[in-house]
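#structure-requests
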Amino acid sequence: MLILRLTLIVITCQIVSARTPLFVGALFEFSEHWFKDYTPFFPRIIEQALKDIQNRTDILQDYELVISYRDTKGQNGYAAMQMVEMVEEKDRPKIAILGPSLSRELIVTGQLAPFLKVTQLSCIATTATTVDEGLFPTVFTVNQVPHTLDKLRVEMTRHFGWKLIGTLAFQKEYSTSQINSFHQYLNELEDRDIELVTTAVVANNSNIKYAIERFKENNVRIIHAVFSSTYAPYVFCEAYKQGMYGDSYVWILSGPNMYKNWTNKAGKTDCTAAELVSASDGYFTLDYQPTGQSNVTTINGQMAQDIWNDLELQAEKENITLVSSAGWIYDMVWALSLGLNNSLKYLDNSGFNGYNNSDYYLNAITSGLKEVDFYGMSGRVNFAGTRFRKGDSFIERNRNGGNFRTTVATFMLDNKIRYNESYSFTLVEDPWPDGWPMDRFMTDYSFSATNKLAFGFVLSFLSLGLLLSGAFLAFNIYYRKKRSVKMSSPVMNNIIITGCVLLYVEVFIASVNYYRVIETDTCMVRTWMMAIGFTTLFGALFSKTYRIYAIFRDGKCKLKVIKDYHLIAKVCVLLAIDCIILIPWTLFHPQHLTEYSVLDKKIENKNVIYYNVYLHCKGDYEVYWFGVLYIYKGLLLVLGTFLAWETRTIRVAELNDSKYIAACIYNVVIICVFGVPIAHVLAVEQRTISFVLNSCLIIFCTTIVLCIIFVPKIRNRNQVQGKFILPSLNASNSNSTQRFTDNSTYESRVECTGKIAHNEKTMEDLKLENETLRMQAAKETIAMAKLKKTLLQMTGDLHLYRSNDNYVVFRKNMDNGVQESNVDIA
């Protein structure tokens, strides 16, 4: 086995005495770099190419190439030093330099070449920096430099109808050079039919997240990227996290930088290997075929695959790995030989005899190389008048993390036109038989579907509440002169019903908005309805109780005249406070009907994103405004609780509403404790739940309050009673009593001397009082008769009779006559 671990290895081909040697330098990484595992077989490939060339009598028939090898150790500066030493060797002027393999080394040595007056050929380096004619006028690339894939990128983009793209690169020379070349090519397009939406250059792995976010924010779906397989796990892991994968997204990468089995490095990321495979499934690589088509004969008379098999057999014998770029190395020697052979016509009759590193020979050699056009082991090699190979390329679709690749399209150079860059794009296999992805997501906005069942249920419930309100209103008007209704103040009862109706109207407006019967902005209208309705209902209820409290306040009986219009004025004051809150809110920070879009994940489409649009009320500083409103309503309920507590000892149902107020307040507080937080916490997309819950709570609360207030009045509507005499609020003052008539003005006169003060009496009052006295007298007569009979039966001789205001008990005595005694039973 040939050992190539020395710093300087010189291989000299057997020289036929009739041929003039042309010295060629070769720079490769034989040590101290990971590529050293592949370079030991490079000299064997070059020797095979030289052997095949020597068998041709029409190529450099008077000359023979002699190759000298130097080890670059994978270091830029060391490679430059080795190159300078080779070129300046006495008696061995270098007519050309082959290599090096690494891009960064080629950039350094390539800039030295024109100063050293020597031509340099590259076959592996992938940098696009060498396209700069001013810096690299003597560098020729036999492998297709990735920047020549720019045409393929554009043709692929146009073929699938994409207009909007994004690019991604890392801060590595091979990456930024390719992307910059692609950007420049896009700018040079005449029709400019492809728009670069955004581009991202990643400095390190931690910045990948922001690059992917930028693509997502700009709705970029077609991404042209250049990065090596080292960074692939990090890129696709972040793409997986942000959902930028699948048939909706197209990742187009540079094939020469992507190797297989890169998903094995999943352990260095936050994703599993399965997640990386899922995220990268179907990504495309643009590449060149290192080995040509097997059905085409190469320049040496063999099929490309036959040459590959011969080299692979030699490599196996020497236990060396044959790299996929072997075809480029083989063709590099052929390109140099053909280029030198073409250069002879630009030289005088002496040809290369007396060669030296001068402009004369350098210009001739570069001119000859630009005319190279042949079919080699790696396919067609054609510089087409430039320093870069123009060859066939193809598009591969990668599955299973790049371990399984299939060719889906080819980009073939037109063989009929030698120096014209005419290509034909052929789709071998359609990667999306069900439809190509679009370059931008189409968005479909539709209003969220309303639930007819929920809408119907709320309306039915609401209708029952309104019917009940109407029934109670009719009852209150019809029986307004009945004592039980009259004493509860029918006017204030009507106001209570009005407040309930306003709350029902708020629910109706909310229902109309939910079902989108009208598109009018009613947010503040609903807020006004809710606030005014609440205050009207409870303000009227508490005002009635305040009248009772005012008469019996401090446990003392007072002469008070509190008419209904006094109570109405108090309700108006409470409503004025509502207006003080609501008017500035409406003028400065009103709520508006706002559209809120939510992604519909139930519908999957690789080209269309569906959004459900929800309408909800939103306003600036609404939290503070609602806070003020809730505090005010809370204080109103506290006032009602206080009044109910203070009037709890009134034992007349028509006057004492304390227990009903307590029940109403309890009902409202319990419902508000659960309803208000839920109304503000529920997500906008839970629109139906929020609508049903809020509507039902309002209807239920309002209806319960109506029933608590009016059902007892309906039950007692025909009850007839006399004057109501009851103790004052101060239980200790037993001599203090009150009497109320059914006068709806509640004009009461109270005396604290223990005697009952008489109100203005009506004829009806006198009739009722007379009837009551007659009934009491009849009952008393019956009771006396029963008592007399009982005494006589028990004693036999005791008798009882009434004399004026006294009761007389006597016994008949046979000896002494009648014995009497007066008893004051009354």
